[in-house]
Amino acid sequence: MSLLDRVYDPESFRKSGHFLVDLLADNLAANLSGIPEKVIDYIQPDKNYENWKNKKFGDPEQYFKELISNSIRIQHPRYIGHQVSAPAPLAALAGFEGLMLNSGGAIYEMSAASSTLERLVIDTFKSYFGFDTGDGIITSGGTLANLTALICARNAKATEEIWQEGQNEKYAFMVSEEAHYCIDRAVRVMGWGDAGIIKVPVDDHYKMKTEFLEPLYQKATSEGIIVLGVVGSAPTTSTGIYDDLTSIGHFCQKHDLWYHIDAAHGGPAVFSEKYKHLMRGCELAHSITVDAHKMMMTPSLTTMLFFRKPEDSYKTFAQKAQYLWSDSTEEWYNYGKRTMECTKIMLSSRIYALIANYGIEVFGEYIDKCYDLAQIFAELISNTDNMEIAVHPESNIVCFRLTSSDPDKDNETNKRIRQALLEDGSYYIVQTMLNNKVYLRVSIMNPFTSQQDLQGLLDLIILKSSMFN
Ligand SMILES: *Cc1c(COP(=O)(O)O)cnc(C)c1O
Predict the structure, then answer these.
(1) Is 291 in the pocket of ligand 1 (CB under 6 A)?
(2) Atom 10 of ligand 1: nearest residue by CA position
(3) 420 close to 428: Cβ distance less than 8 angstroms
(4) Ligand 1 binding pocket includes 180 (Cβ within 6 Å)
(5) I want to staple 348 with a disulfide (CB 3.0 to 4.6 A). Which of 118, 191, 279, 380 is the partner?
(6) What CATH number is given for 363-466 in this structure?
(7) 256: left (phi > 0), else alpha (psi -120 to 50), else beta?
(8) Starting from the edge strand earliest in sequence, which strands make up the sheet with 225-233, in order?
């Protein structure tokens, strides 16, 4: 068999594929029941690089095994670190099928299934956000979706024809100081620099102080900066706290500003009867980013960007070319006109596979489970001596810290705890900085994390800290 015959040999594919699925299924079963002692087997980057460089692989099976053994166990109930989902197996399988079909893309001819499902997914969900007559796209990540929304906002709200002529004025967006850094980055990508991002302070509960919007807006305007819009966080990444989306919406209405909501993490709260109140006011937005790969169980990256007015969705990359789309629904099926990507992975099918097989209610159940666990964890923390919580959680993100009689030492202690946990490997959590204080940070992404797992973490932290002295 020639080398290329081997590459494309269907029987080898069948064999390796079956092997891989069996391997992943065994891995899933073990991880979900928390059997492996370690969630992460941390290896220094340079050492890992040397390891890989020296590996020789006799067959694909061996290669697959190595990849698993060098990867963090995302489906393990004691993985409670960054906001990455434990992917639903069916969503991952749909993603794999999409990779093999390789036909998700810019133009309908190439992506009949993918484009049609993209519309179906957006149409299925848009009314949950109050966008009954809205539209949207699916794109590669919240970062890209937020940039896409801000470019669209600029086209819609700036007085110049920026898409054709470039920009001469100074523009800005207003955003909570706790917003995800990608908003800041998007503003700088658009060439607005430091002045282009106006950071609004947060209150004791890490919510944007919306009463600061007006004075900050007036100040910027008096300095010749044209404020085009406001970004609300739903929730912010560090603390998982939702901004008051209604107040921001009313402020935007008053000054005719674009209102974007970065609901990358917590948009799916709309699917939960119990938690949908957190998204109240989202119907006032012009655009909303929702990552399915955070709180909707799909593999990364799978992000929906909704627009309240369908025509906005078509204008992002073609301000002047509106004549091409006299009817805003014309050519809905050629998604490349509306996304940053040209060629695109088949994204819609990862979400649609879940809708089609389990129904929309699966998303609400998932939110309820993970958000409820954060409430339970907050309770456990409050019952533990020498521990404090940054703020009572609203979502599945909890920030807390060890405290002592010597507050000057607490930052160092919490940093050491986090490092000790990383090296121990039986839990995976992260850390964040709030008001110059180091906090341990947990995102409960796995609905099978138990109260015992969470209590176990607190016990382990106490144990580790006792070893510092
Ligand atoms: C995760 C996150 C992002 C970035 O999204 P990616 O999909 O990782 O690019 C943006 N905003 C918020 C609020 C987030 O939580």
Answers:
(1) yes
(2) 142
(3) no
(4) yes
(5) 118
(6) 3.90.1150.170
(7) left
(8) 135-139, 303-307, 287-291, 258-262, 225-233, 170-176, 197-200
Neighbouring residues of 120: CB distance < 8 A, sequence distance ≥ 6: 348, 352
pLDDT in tens, 240-264: 999 999 999 999 999 999 999 999 9
How many other C-beta atoms can be found within 10 angstroms of the C-beta atom of residue 218? 12
Q: Is 307 exposed, middle or buried (0-12, 13-18, 19+ CB in 10 A)?
A: buried
Establish whether residue 162 lines the binding site of ligand 1, counting it when its CB lies within 6 angstroms of any ligand atom.
no
What spacing in Å lies between the alpha carbon of 145 and ligand 1's midpoint? Answer: 9
202 contacts 177 by C-beta, under 8 angstroms: yes
Q: Are residues 150 and 307 in contact, defined by beta-carbon separation less than 8 angstroms?
A: no
**pLDDT, tens digit, 9 for 90 and up, residues 186-209:** 999 999 999 999 999 999 999 999
Pocket test for ligand 1, best of 180, 288, 305 (most atoms within 8 A of CB): 180
How does DSSP assign 297-316, residue by residue? -PPSS-EEEEESSHHHHHHT
Q: How far apart are the first and last CA of the chain?
A: 65
Q: Cβ(207)–Cβ(264) under 8 Å?
A: no
What topology is assigned to 95-358 in CATH? Answer: Aspartate Aminotransferase; domain 2 (3.40.640)
Q: Is the CB–ligand 1 distance for residue 272 below 6 Å?
A: no
Going from N- to C-terminal start, the domains of the chain cover: 3-73, 95-358, 363-466
Reported confidence tier of residue 161, pLDDT bands at 50, 70, 90: confident
What's residue 317's pLDDT?
Answer: 85
Q: Quick check: 107 and 334 in contact, CB under 8 A? A: yes
Q: Global pTM?
A: 0.97
Q: Which residues, in sequence order, are bridge partners of residue 287?
A: 260, 307
